[in-house]
Structure formats: structure tokens, C-alpha cells
């Protein structure tokens, strides 16, 4: 029998040639955390979809044959982690993948990538929202941002302006199946210049919050980096609140490492400058348990 000396993740995301999103950040982050990444690309793009005129190759027709090959190779994974899908039809393909490859202890993370800042990404329509709503039912952990929480729960961004509105939406989504729901980019209404991440664990009914300083800049792919660190940290054996802390701190340091430059923010945070931070244990922990 062969041994697998390091943990292994099946990463189901697009490959956007230019811009620090999806596989361009998932691979270096998880590799840096000592985890093997096996890529199942959903689409190949010249750049991510926030640049004009991006070129797009949808890999829906190839994915099932690639998965068939993985079955022939008898591959197994400690985690399955999906993100940006190339078409609504891929929801069925990823669902089958999860059902076929999930064994006892497999961590299934679905980042329901749909949009940001209240808007759906240009390549998506309502079918993708319906599809993601069904896919999250198979996940152990989902990591929507506030905009994605709105699309998935059907609540308006206005309704998600209060902590109670957000909690209500989280509880509704948790009924669809996921054990842990992590919502990113939640503004701290009463404290200007702060942003936070809220997490709910259905098993013990606990809500966790981690907050950090907010800088007025928008970098695509931070959600992908966040969920990659969270996944890596949980696979390393960290508790949920520590994993949240590590992921928040990584993004926060990344934004700070980038913000001072005259720089096209569409390129994303300078992860090359901060990857080494993943080697260090949590420097200062700031998670809170909410009532
Ligand atoms: O999760 C960010 C992301 C991933 N993949 C593609 C994107 C984006 C954000 O714009 O366009 C193709």
C-alpha cells in the first residue's frame, strides 16, 4: 500500500491567468501550509472576470472525463474544496464528485462564489444562484461573503444591514445542510473602519466573530485566499475560531502589504509578500463568542 505523507485537497476552481484569484491563490496557500493540491479546473480564463474582454474557456465538457481518470487512479482526498464554477451544469458534476469521493472524515468546503459588493459577477445568471443553493446542501462548511449570503438567502442587502438580519439568514441557510457557515465582509455598523467575519456552527449553535481594521480598497480573490487559509488551518487541526483568526489575519496583513502602493487593485493582494506568514502560529488572537 502506498502512503500519503501529506494531506490532500481536491480543488475545484477556475484558473484565471491574470489576477490573484481562484487556483492562482488556492495552490500557493495550501502548498505553503503543507497540503497537496489536486486541481480540477472548472474554466480557464485569460484574466478574472472583472477585467474587460476576458477570454473564457468553459471546461464543463471535460470535467467528467477528468474525474473518471481520478477514479481510475483510485485517488482519495482529505478535503474537497470548490469555488468559482464555469457553468450552472457544473453544480451537478461537483455534487456527484462530492458524493463519489466523500468518505468518513472528508472535509467538504463550498465557497459559493457568485458576486461581491451587492452584485452578481458578470459571467453568472440566476441559474447559478439556484445551483449554488443546492450545492451548499452537501457542504460541511460554506464561506459566502455578505453579497452571496443575500443571493443565497433571498434577503436584500438592506435586510442584511443588522446583525439580527444576518443571523436570521445564516440560520435559514444552515437548514439546507451545511454545519458551519462563515460570512465574510460583514461591516461593523457601530464602529467605523472595522470589518468582520461571522461564523455559525449548527452542531453546538455557537456564533463566532473575528473583526479587523478595514481599509477602503477592494481586491478580487481575497475570498479565495480567505477560504484557502481557513481550509488549510482546519486540515492542520486548528479549532474553528483559531482557523477564522488565521484567515482574517492573513487577509488583513495582505491588504496592508498592498494598500500603500499606487497599484491596480484588480490584481489582488500581494500574496507573494506574505505567504511566509502562514508558517507562524497565530500571533494574537481576537475571536469572540457571541450570545
Ligand atoms: O472568487 C473570485 C473570482 C474567481 N474566479 C473568477 C473571478 C473572480 C472574481 O472576480 O472573476 C473567474
Subunit organisation of the chains: single chain
Low-pLDDT runs of 5+ residues are none
Strand order of the largest sheet: 3-1-6-7-10-11-12-13-14
Figure out the total of helices.
9
What is the rounded distance between the termini? Answer: 49 Å
Quickly describe the structure.
This protein has 291 residues and is α/β, with parallel strands linked by helices. The chain is 35% helix and 21% strand. 3-hydroxy-5-(hydroxymethyl)-2-methylisonicotinaldehyde binds next to helix 7.
What this model shows, in words?
With 291 residues, the chain is of the alpha/beta class. The chain has one domain: UDP-N-acetylmuramoyl-L-alanine:D-glutamate ligase (3-Layer(aba) Sandwich). It has helices at 23-32, 60-72, 90-101, 126-135, 146-153, 163-174, 222-235, 240-259, 271-274; strands at residues 8-12, 15-18, 36-39, 43-47, 56-58, 79-82, 107-110, 115-116, 119-120, 141-142, 180-187, 194-201, 206-213, 288-290. The strands form three sheets. Strands 3-1-6-7-10-11-12-13-14 form a nine-stranded mixed sheet, with helices on both faces. The chain has a three-stranded mixed sheet with strand order 2-4-5, with no helix packed on it. A two-stranded antiparallel ribbon has the order 8-9. The relative contact order is 0.14. Bound molecules: 3-hydroxy-5-(hydroxymethyl)-2-methylisonicotinaldehyde.
Amino acid at each position: 500500500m502506498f502512503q500519503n505523507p501529506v494531506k490532500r485537497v481536491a480543488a475545484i476552481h477556475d484558473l484565471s491567468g491574470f489576477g490573484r484569484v481562484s487556483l492562482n491563490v488556492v495552490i500557493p496557500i495550501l502548498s505553503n501550509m503543507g497540503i497537496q493540491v489536486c486541481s480540477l479546473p472548472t474554466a480557464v480564463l485569460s484574466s478574472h472576470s472583472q477585467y474587460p474582454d476576458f477570454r473564457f474557456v468553459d471546461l464543463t465538457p471535460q470535467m467528467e472525463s477528468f474525474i473518471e481518470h481520478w477514479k481510475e487512479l483510485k485517488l482519495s482526498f482529505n478535503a474537497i474544496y470548490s469555488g468559482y464554477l464555469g457553468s450552472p451544469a457544473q453544480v451537478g458534476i461537483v455534487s456527484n464528485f462530492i458524493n463519489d469521493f466523500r468518505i468518513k472524515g472528508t472535509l467538504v468546503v463550498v465557497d459559493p462564489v457568485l458576486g461581491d459588493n451587492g452584485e452578481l459577477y458578470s459571467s453568472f445568471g440566476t441559474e447559478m444562484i439556484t445551483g449554488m443553493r443546492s450545492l451548499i446542501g452537501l457542504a460541511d462548511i460554506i464561506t459566502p461573503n455578505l453579497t452571496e449570503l443575500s443571493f443565497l438567502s433571498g434577503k436584500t442587502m438592506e435586510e442584511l444591514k443588522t446583525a439580527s438580519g444576518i443571523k436570521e439568514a445564516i440560520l435559514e441557510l444552515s437548514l439546507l445542510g451545511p454545519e458551519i457557515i462563515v460570512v465574510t465582509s460583514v461591516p461593523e455598523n457601530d464602529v467605523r473602519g472595522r470589518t468582520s467575519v461571522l461564523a455559525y456552527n449548527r452542531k453546538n449553535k455557537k456564533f463566532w466573530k473575528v473583526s479587523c481594521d478595514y481599509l477602503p480598497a477592494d481586491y478580487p480573490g481575497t475570498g479565495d485566499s480567505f477560504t484557502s487559509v481557513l481550509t488549510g488551518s482546519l486540515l492542520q487541526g486548528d479549532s474553528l475560531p483559531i482557523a477564522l483568526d488565521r484567515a482574517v489575519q492573513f487577509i488583513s496583513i495582505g491588504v496592508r502589504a498592498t494598500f500603500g502602493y499606487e497599484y491596480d487593485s484588480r490584481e489582488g493582494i500581494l500574496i507573494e509578500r506574505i505567504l511566509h506568514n502562514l508558517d507562524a502560529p497565530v500571533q494574537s488572537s481576537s475571536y469572540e463568542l457571541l450570545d
